[in-house]
Amino acid sequence: MFEATPSIPKKAGHDIHGSKTTSISRLDRITKAADILGVEEGETISADDELLAALGYRAELKREFSYVTVFGQSFGSMGIAPAIAESMIFSLGSAGSVGMVWTYLVGCLLLIPVALSLGELGSSMPTSGGLYYWVARLTPPRQRAFMCWIANHFPDLWNDMCTIANTISPHMFYIFLQFAMLLALIIALAAGTPSEFQNSASFVFTDFENTGYWMNNGWAFMLSFLTPVWVVSGFESAATIAEEASNAAKAVPFAMVSSLVVAAMSGWAVIITIAFCMGTDVVKYCGITFGSAIGTDCF
């Protein structure tokens, strides 16, 4: 499962024939890792453990998670369908179908550089501490305590714990369940919507309607970005299981970026389907007759 590094050499820098086997820096890293991990001479060290040891950190968890599992952690944390159902009222109510359709796509595209940046951090420092460890390593010593406190308490920790608790053991079944829910929602809306509620493409992609909550149309449109920010938040949770993933330096960043891309495509498909099947009366649709906008759509 693990990618093994060379054994601890008995003669630093040379093999038994006297030829150089690896660079000094490489040997220094292996030797440091051996000291931290307590590896005896001649034994091998996994690339994952060597990377952590180079940070002065000793891994304690078993590495049993594959890339698919790490992807499932990120994708499952987002919960595309329920998140859209909860937050679409902000984009649709602020700027009509244009706000709902286009800000989701643009918002996801703008989040890709964020995922790449977090993936780089997750690849270079694949610890289960994730954000908190990164802040501790990258913040100047004088500000470190305060910035770590901010990083720990500023987010909604209770919500994060609930999310992680519900996805702590992601398997293929739950990944399939997410896609099945999205597909069922798309098919049900497309097949069951009466003709009088079916919209044209021009309405879906060009109709801007400020429902009157904000006087400034530009500000109303910007508020529509609340939907993509809420829906795809959670892709960074792959970092929380980095110490349990094999080849974490690659699996974690790939999971972050790929889960965001998949969420962008599948979520946009759901949003477009909703826009085609909700009718043209945005104000009435946002009245939430059945407790949620998408519930109104389904009924």
Can you describe what's shown?
With 299 residues, the chain is mainly α. It has two domains: 1-59, no CATH class; 67-298, no CATH class. Helix content is 63%, strand content 0%. The chain is built from 14 helices and no strands. The longest helix is centred in the middle third of the chain and has 45 residues, at 80-124. The radius of gyration is 24 Å and the shape is elongated. The model is unreliable at 1-24 (pLDDT under 50).
SSE topology:
Layout: H1 24-37, H2 47-54, H3 67-78, H4 80-124, H5 131-138, H6 141-153, H7 157-166, H8 172-192, H9 201-206, H10 217-223, H11 226-231, H12 248-276, H13 282-285, H14 293-298
Distance between the termini: 49 Å
Q: Helical stretch count?
A: 14
For the sheet with most strands, the description reads: none
Mean pLDDT: 73
Q: Which spans of ≥5 residues are poorly predicted at pLDDT below 50? A: 1-24
Primary descriptors:
Amino acid permease/ SLC12A domain-containing protein; disordered N terminus; 63% helix; mainly alpha; 299 residues; 0% strand; elongated; transmembrane transporter activity; 2 domains; AA/rel_permease1; 14 helices; transmembrane
Put the structure in a nutshell.
The protein has 299 residues and is an all-alpha fold.
